[in-house]
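Anyone able to model this chain together with coproporphyrinogen III?
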Amino acid sequence: MRDIFLRACRGERTAPVPVWFMRQAGRYLPEYQEIRGKADFLTMCKTPELAAQVTLQPVDLLGVDAAILFSDILIPLEAMGAGLSFVEGKGPVLDPPVRSDEDFKRLHPIEPEKDVPFVLETIKILRRQLADRVPLIGFAGAPFTMATYLVEGGTTKSFVNIKKMLFSNPALFRKVMDLITDVTISYLSAQIDAGAQAIQLFDTWAGVLTRHDFRDAALIYARRIFNALRPKGVPMIYFVYDGGHLLDLTALSGADVIGLDWRTDVETALKSLGPDTVVQGNLDPCLLFLSEDRLRERISEIILQGLQAKAHIFNLGHGVLPEIPPEKVKLAIDIIHELSA
Ligand code: CP3
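re: yes, here you go
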């Protein structure tokens, strides 16, 4: 198996540097659009053959060093009793939102084998189809990010409902977070048992918290997940989007790898994280609009800074945007491999 991704996760410096991109399976690929034209997004997630097929597309077409399961962080919320839909042009909707003790009663723990069998089946198919070509990454949303979707009912700009619950009804906030944390532990545990060889925890919204509140309302729950999964022995990545002010705290999460968004360059991030950290990141996804020469310079800058870390996994600072030409994504991956070889 091409194992540079797993070796880098464990702190080994590799040549070349491994690369995979968040949202590497997605709408920018015509091959994805073709399947998506026949099935809606949730149907794709729940049909193991389709989910496996699109997971493999970037492996076959782009030459990435890891596959990431095609699914969504919101899938377990639906399994917990929340109503989930994806509305064209609006993004995910959780209806009705969870804002009171009464609402909370609708939620329940999950049994992954019974409630999300399609995710585990997709992982099993993928391990067979990947036949040890590259490792498979499983994932989940971190509790604060999941609670944000549940309580806001979808995407938000103000975060007023989740922060209102945190500050005016901390007992309910804790109940919601405890339940999501337990669900996430059993969900990721089942993914690992089914064959996921590394896992990433996405904390997309925790960056809206102050350092004080991040520690109390997000980090302790993420930490609980990493502690519980530690005995499983697979590498674990923690990605906090827009978390530049939180980096020294994320270093306390218990994850093996810290994912960086594009705002903080690797060199600056390492000052907060310490040089003994494995980092993943962090090209601004929009830099893929640059000309080839300029793109090469910016990639080179990140690779050089990555040499200051214990080990480096190349990634974008957030997901691939649908507007990026697929040839550019492939070019970036080739440049990363070439410059770090
Ligand atoms: O990275 C991968 O290739 C693996 C699959 C993956 C998806 N979503 C597929 C997807 C992963 C790891 C995610 C995680 C996810 N989902 C996050 C955390 C990462 C981040 O972006 O910060 C979040 C916040 C979500 C919730 C979510 N799902 C949003 C906000 C959206 C976008 C809605 C929109 O229309 O733009 C989705 C939908 C989604 N998830 C798509 C894909 C490929 C697009 C679905 C489509 O085909 O319409």
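Residues 22-27, 36, 41, 68, 70-74, 86, 91-92, 139, 155, 202, 204, 241, 319 surround coproporphyrinogen III (CB under 6 Å).
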